[in-house]
Specification:
Blueprint (H helix, E strand, L loop, with lengths): L2 H17 L1 E2 L2 E2 H25 L3 H7 L6 H5 L15 H5 L4 H19 L6 H21 L3 H4 L14 H12 L4 H4 L19
Antiparallel strand pairs: 1-2
Length: 202
């Protein structure tokens, strides 16, 4: 028997296995049903994930409405001359799937904190602000400010369009291997009262 004649026989055997009844349904029917169910599950799961990335969800389910949301509304990320608005998930949720899932699991602790009363008042929130901010800064530092870089890039900064001093500092930061969060804490939210500004090297 030649190799070419073995292939059709092998294909027929696989096809027979796929069509063989498994209790009531053929294996092919079960595979098709599983495939369609998988698509429907993935679609529903992804839709749910995206729904949790909206501004309304963030301020509704996290302890944000009376705290950091109020501060955020006074920043350039909320309202600016070009109308480009950055919402919570743009800064706090990675875009790629694997890191996004990890971040969602981490963020569920904040919901738990609200439900259990750990941060359910402004006073309690302020008491834990430094702890929460430090944890978030460390996360951003570890990822080289990945979410910031979705919009901001050293390479895209224009010397002509950016003021001289900021441009010089940005290029210096790039040369030193610094990342956005090293210099830009407190951009969208008030700094914790315990925070001490590091001394400028210059």
């Amino acid at each position: 028997m030649t190799v070419s004649s073995e292939r059709p026989n092998r294909c027929r055997r696989w096809w027979a296995v796929l069509r063989r009844p498994a209790a009531r349904y053929s294996l092919l029917t079960l595979l098709l049903a599983g495939f369609v169910s998988g698509i429907l599950f993935w679609g529903a799961f992804n839709t749910g994930m995206e729904a949790t990335n909206t501004l309304s969800f963030c301020i509704g389910c996290h302890e944000m409405r009376d705290n950091v949301y109020v501060e955020y509304k006074e920043t350039i990320h909320y309202q600016n001359r070009t109308g480009v608005q950055v919402v919570c998930s743009d800064c706090h949720v990675p875009r790629d799937w694997a890191h996004k899932i990890v971040r969602k699991l981490e963020a569920s602790k904040e919901v738990w904190g609200k439900l259990t009363g750990i941060i359910d008042t402004q006073e309690k929130f302020e008491a834990r602000r430094m702890t929460m901010a430090t944890r978030e800064w460390a996360r951003m530092k570890a990822s080289d400010s990945r979410e910031c870089r979705n919009c901001h890039s050293f390479d895209a900064m224009s010397e002509e369009l950016q003021r001289k001093t900021p441009f010089k500092k940005h290029m210096s930061a790039k040369a030193e291997g610094k990342t956005c969060i090293d210099c830009h804490k407190g951009i969208a939210h008030r700094l914790p009262k315990e925070y001490e500004e590091p001394e400028d090297d210059e």
